Amino acid sequence: MSERLGSWNEGPTKSAITDFVGRVTEDGGPDYVEPAARVAVFDNDGTLWTEKPLVIQLDFTIRRFRQLAENDRVLRTQQPYQAAYEGDLDWMDAAMVKHYRGDDSDLKLLMGAVPRAFESLTVEEYDRRVKEFFDQADNPGLKRPYRECGYLPMVELLRYLEANGFATYIASGGDRDFMRPVAEGMYGIPPERIIGSALGITYSYEGGQFALMYKGAMDFFDDGPEKPIRIWSRIGRRPILAFGNSNGDVPMLAYAGSSSLPALRILLLHDDSEREFDYVAGAEQALEVAKQENWTVVSIKNDWAQVFA
Fold first, then answer.
1. What is the pTM of this model?
2. Mean pLDDT (whole number) for 168-188
3. Contact at 8 Å (CB) between 196 and 175?
4. Where are the alpha helices (DSSP H) in the chain?
5. What integer pLDDT is reported at residue 89 of this predicted model?
6. pLDDT tens-digit profile of 92-112?
7. What are the angstrom distances between the C-alpha of 226 and each of 41, 147, 230?
8. How far apart, in Å, are the Cα atoms of 265 and each of 70, 108, 216, 286, 296?
9. Which domains does the chain have, with CATH numbers?
C-alpha cells in the first residue's frame, strides 16, 4: 500500500504512517478499528496548502479591506484597513503569529473587521468571489497560482487513507465557506466534510426571493480548543489521525484517539527554504509538545521528495 505515497521519501516518518494504517486495518489485530470509526482530520493553512508569505484567505480579505479603504478615508487610519491600504503585509502576518503565541490583540481587530467586510453578501455571491480570486491570484513568494499551492504529498495521503477506509475531514481555523469552493478540486474533499470558522448567516426573504446572507459578526473562530469542539459537533466521533502544523492545532491533535482507540498525531515542519518556506514562528509550542509526547513530525525538506504537483 505504501506505493500510493509516491512523493514521500522512504524512512521512519513514512513508515509511521503506513504502519499505523496497517495496524488499524488489520482485521482481528489488537489495534483494529472499524471503518466507521476511521476518522482523519487535517488542518488546512500550512498543512494542506501554503500559509506563507501570508495566509491565502488573508490575501483575499486584504483585497476587500483595501477596496473599502479606498472609498473611505477614515478607514485608512484604522487597523487592519490601514495595513491593507498601505500594503503592509507584515502587520497581517504578524497578527497571526502573535495569535499562535497567545497574543490576540491584533487578531481581535482583524476578526472584527472580517465579517463587516462581507456583510449582506449572499452565500452564493461570496462563493463566486472566492472562485474568481483563485482564478486570478498567485502566491507572491512562490510565484505560482494559489490553486497550485496545495501539497502533493498531502493529497496523496488523503487518497491513501480513503483507500483504507478512512473518512477525511478538514478542520481549519480558516473560513469554511472560503475553503468549500476550491477544496474539492484541490484535495478531493467535498464541502460537507469541511469544518472551519464561520461568519454569521441570516435568512432573508424579500420580493419573493429567499436568500442566506452574511451578518456583520463572526459565528465562531475554529482554532485552538475550539477545534475539538467543532470536530465533535460535526462528526460525533473522535478522530484516530490528526494532522496539523501550528500551536493552534495542539488541542486537535491531543483529542485524537482515546483509551479504546489508537491514534496517530502528526505535525508538519516547514524547513525547506528552497522548495517552500523555512519557519517555526507560531509552531514553537506544538513542536515542543510533539517532542514530549512522541508525536510524528514530518519534515518537508527530508520527508517529501516533491512538494507541489
1. 0.92
2. 97
3. yes
4. 12-24, 56-70, 81-86, 89-100, 105-117, 123-136, 152-163, 176-187, 226-235, 250-255, 284-293, 300-303
5. 78
6. 778 878 888 889 888 888 888
7. 14, 28, 6
8. 45, 30, 36, 11, 6
9. 2-51+144-303 (3.40.50.1000), 56-132 (no CATH)
